[in-house]
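User: I'm new to structure prediction. If I give you an amino acid sequence, what do you actually give back? Let's try with this one:
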Amino acid sequence: MDAGGGSEAEPRISFYGGKWASTLPLGFFILWAVFQSGVLGIGDTNGLVIGALIGTILGMFFVRGDWKTYADTIFEGMTQRVAATAIVAWLWAGMFAETLQVGGFVEGLIFAADALNVGAATFPAAAFVLCGLLATGIGTGYGATVAFVTLFFPAGVLIGASPVLLFAAILSGAVFGDNLAPVSDTTIVSAVTQDADIGGVVASRFKYAIVAAVPAFVAYLIMGSMLSGASLEGAAALRDTATAPGLVHLVSMGVVIATAVAGRHIVEAISWGLVVAVGFNLGLGLSSVSDVLVFTVTEAGTVTALPFVAVGDTASVGGSLYTGAIGFFPLIVLTLLIVSMAQIMIRGGGFAAIQEFLLNSVATNVRRAEVTMVLGTAAINGMITINTAAEIAIAPYIARIGEKFNINGYRRANILDANTSALGYIFPWAGGVLVGYQVMVGPDGLGAEYGPEMVVNPIEVVPYVFHGWFLVIVFLAAAVTGFGREYVPDRTSEEVSRA
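Assistant: Good question. You get back a string of structure tokens that encode the predicted 3D arrangement of the chain. For your 499 residues, that looks like this:
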């Protein structure tokens, strides 16, 4: 099986220790991540990059024969479209969110929260709902996470919300959107690989999403009043001086959502939002040209008369466009390494071994089949932390076991998508968590604009990503009880929409 859903009769890479040895790079990386994040309490993305590199090198020593095929597989994994999709979403969303930030959107949100009496206790629940709506509209949980951690997270923490709970609430909203959005990569992949139409899949999974979302919303309301916020110097002064003009960027976000819902590519949607945001910033005086893009030179001259050129001690490039993109470079490297390690496991037969074991030894009736589908997708997503990549890897197995027990394509697609959407925003090494953390620490790695007190260790949010956990629980319960189970004769897909 390859990342595109194909299959191979024999593994392309032969390992000492057999197919299971191909899991060594990913397995080592996960142990490294658990030790770094959980035991040492270090959430540094750069440290995870080192763990991924060492794991990849260790796997090489277990290869039988020439190492060339192993090395080629690393490059093959890095060129997968799923990695490029995540990277592009981060870069564009980062530039957009930073441009809104320099335009005073955070201050506008603080002003609106005070005006509407949205306090620290209710802010996480509100962030969950709003992030879920944005992620559903634009179809990318990663992009929504970037935007909300850049904008809503500091606003909420500055009015007294718990940083850990608020970050978890944003991740929960991203889970909701990734799972339900018709234009989400995970929704499209889950539908296409299970021969179901996208519209029918979205309609059939709505009941599961709501059953998980309602208790998650209640949990955020309850925990919001129980967990205390961070004590930030200058927070009170910032709240007192917060003004409304930055709220004009609600229009900028609306442009992104409307363009995405209209069926345009997410890059085009965010680009239009970025153009509108820059226009508002400059036209309304919310920021200067140099806040958006600035070239710093060491000596004054004729060129320094330009509004985007400044004089400083060192030559550099800056501004919201630069800052919004550059902060994701460590995460981009990590993503490429994770996808390449997954490809090694695929080409070495590790995925096939896991799937054949589950198919032949565990899934002996329809109930056990669905339980293993839920647990199998959870296990794979725990290893491949880029959710779309994990979904593509496990999709052929879900199709095979579903067809064996005559399970409808809609049901298979929903089981496939739920775990890959949920767990991609829970574990400390998951892509959704790391992209939010990377926004917090900023490009210099020293903490966000408002200080290191606002940086949350990824391990701390694990128990509080309520919608993600509830979604997994809902589908595990559905598999055991048969809630929502459909067989092929129950409903036939009219059309398989392919993206």
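You can read the tokens as a compact description of the fold. Here is one thing that stands out. The two ends are 21 Å apart (CA to CA).
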